[in-house]
């Protein structure tokens, strides 16, 4: 079995994170979601993976390179052009991206799986493969039941008793949805399916290819296999997923590092005096991070690597990226610090540089600079006892 | 710098008429309010309802006003929008500023 990972999306619903990081590279406890997918594919014997890239392609390509270090072989199908030294995406749609690869090399010469790079899954691909083969299916969608009130976010699918696809609805209103069974965006195909995709035009799998397959009477099935699916489709999704994982709600997700105390995981080379810092799990602390005396960290929280949480700082339920300095004045509560932005779980954010608050929150590699106003605030906080 | 000033029962309510309360506004605002305080108007409400964005100098000017008034008067702020609320909390200034949801409440708190 071969695979294609869809990684060319712009990730507009995960802005501002996706201004600097493509959606498949969004870290869940410091590990890009797509890395977990590659491990899953590898563990099921998939050894050749083509990834279509566009938005921020180099971030993905430079991280995974040829896949050797992950035990797979990887290649990239770039969808875009370079204009004045800048990459510009030229979307082909999910199906158009498949067709481009096929026309290029005929890569898809056996059963293959197509999936998005932006959801953590522990799907048993072998079970899907067995179902796909047993039914002589040409295209199989992995389905999942969701609470009825959430169907509006997804493609809703209706099947007959054998799993054959009867009907599709793209993001229907809850009242008119024909079921609460949804398309997870994970597909298994035979190469013959590519004959139904036109050359050189933007073409979507869910919206265009599937209606064609239904019309053409192609053996087309949906299969429900129990698995955990942690979608990172928006900032609130990322927030919820991180908390779920730290709370032990995603059984297959191994928190990296070592559990040094119940509910507290760390990398190596962490500088902390456990008697003087107040750390309440579940918390992950990355390697080479320092936690100052009197600092308070309340979970669920993820502190990246090479961070400096200075003495007296309060970090309450946050996700903080690598190389972040949180000074002793800071009271950081329910925030994601990523890409020089301070982001609320709802997705609202402000820019750390624009707000000129380097004296509270900044890149740890920058020198701490104190303007007159910064000193005024700092000194006042000291005066009124906020830093005692 | 756009500001409107109203007297409400002996309390001076100053509404900042700028969407961005940053270094282009902050020093003037601080001086403006401290001048009023110097002239004896020492109960001040600063209405931030129009301010969508505040940076460290905006915050610093509020702290400067608070320090300038000291024990000789009172300061309250009101109608704090979400970004400013975040910044106040992040710098712990939410715990030293007298913050209210409306101008009426703020006035009442220092009347």
Descriptive account of the structure:
The complex is a heterodimer of chains A (388) and B (111). Chain A has 388 residues and is of the alpha/beta class. Chain A folds into two domains: 2-231, Spore Coat Polysaccharide Biosynthesis Protein SpsA, Chain A; 255-383, 3 Solenoid (UDP N-Acetylglucosamine Acyltransferase, domain 1). Chain A is built from eight helices and 32 strands. The mean pLDDT of chain A is 93. Chain B is α/β, with parallel strands linked by helices and 111 residues long. Chain B has one domain: STAS domain (Transcription Regulator spoIIAA), CATH 3.30.750. In chain B, the strands form two sheets. Chain B has a five-stranded mixed beta sheet, with helices on both faces. The longest helix of chain B is centred in the middle third of the chain and has 14 residues, at 56-69. Chain A binds chain B through residues 329-333, 335, 342, 344, 348, 350, 354-357, 359-361, 371-374, 376-377, 380-381, 384, 386, and chain B through 23, 26, 53-57, 59-61, 63-64, 66-67, 82-83, 86-87, 89-93, 95-96.
């Amino acid at each position: 079995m071969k695979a294609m990972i869809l990684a060319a999306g712009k990730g507009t619903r995960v802005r501002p994170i996706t201004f600097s990081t493509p959606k498949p590279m969004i870290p869940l406890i410091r590990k890009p979601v797509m890395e977990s997918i590659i491990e899953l594919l590898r563990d099921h014997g998939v050894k050749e993976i083509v990834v279509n890239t566009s938005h921020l392609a180099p971030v993905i390509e430079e991280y995974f390179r040829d896949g050797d270090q992950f035990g797979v072989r990887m290649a990239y199908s770039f969808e875009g052009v370079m204009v004045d030294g800048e990459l510009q995406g030229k979307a082909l749609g999910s199906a158009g991206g498949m067709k481009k690869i096929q026309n290029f090399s005929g890569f898809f010469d056996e059963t293959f799986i197509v999936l998005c790079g932006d959801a953590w899954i522990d799907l048993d691909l072998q079970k899907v493969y067995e179902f796909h083969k047993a039914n002589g299916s040409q295209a199989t969608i992995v389905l999942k039941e969701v609470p009825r009130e959430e169907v509006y976010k997804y493609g809703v699918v209706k099947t007959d008793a054998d799993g054959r696809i009867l009907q599709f609805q793209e993001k229907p209103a809850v009242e008119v949805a024909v079921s609460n069974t949804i398309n997870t965006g994970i597909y298994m195909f035979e190469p013959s399916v590519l004959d139904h995709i036109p050359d050189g035009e933007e073409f979507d799998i869910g919206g265009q290819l599937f209606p064609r397959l239904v019309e053409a009477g192609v053996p087309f099935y949906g299969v429900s296999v129990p698995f955990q699916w942690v979608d990172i489709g928006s900032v609130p999704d990322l927030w919820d997923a991180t908390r779920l994982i730290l709370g032990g709600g995603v059984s297959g997700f191994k928190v990296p590092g070592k559990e040094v105390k119940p509910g507290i995981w760390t990398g190596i080379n962490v500088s902390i005096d456990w008697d003087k810092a107040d750390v309440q799990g579940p918390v992950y602390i990355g390697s080479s991070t320092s936690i100052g005396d009197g600092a308070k960290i309340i979970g669920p929280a993820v502190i990246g690597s090479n961070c400096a949480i200075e003495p007296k700082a309060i970090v309450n339920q946050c996700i903080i990226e690598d190389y972040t300095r949180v000074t002793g004045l800071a009271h950081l509560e329910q925030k994601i610090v990523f890409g020089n932005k301070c982001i609320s779980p709802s997705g609202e954010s402000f820019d750390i540089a624009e707000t000129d608050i380097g004296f509270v929150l900044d890149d740890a590699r920058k020198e701490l600079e104190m303007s007159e106003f910064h000193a005024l605030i700092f000194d006042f906080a000291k005066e009124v006892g906020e830093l005692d | 710098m756009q500001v409107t000033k109203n007297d409400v029962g002996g309390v001076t309510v100053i509404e900042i008429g700028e969407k961005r309360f940053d270094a282009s506004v902050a020093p003037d605002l601080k001086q403006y309010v401290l001048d009023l305080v110097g002239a004896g108007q020492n109960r001040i409400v600063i209405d931030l309802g129009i301010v969508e964005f505040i940076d460290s100098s905006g915050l610093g000017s509020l702290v400067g006003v608070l320090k300038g008034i000291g024990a000789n008067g009172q300061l309250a702020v009101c109608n704090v929008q979400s970004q400013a609320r975040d910044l106040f909390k992040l710098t712990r200034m939410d715990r030293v500023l007298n913050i209210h949801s409306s101008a009426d409440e703020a006035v009442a708190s220092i009347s």
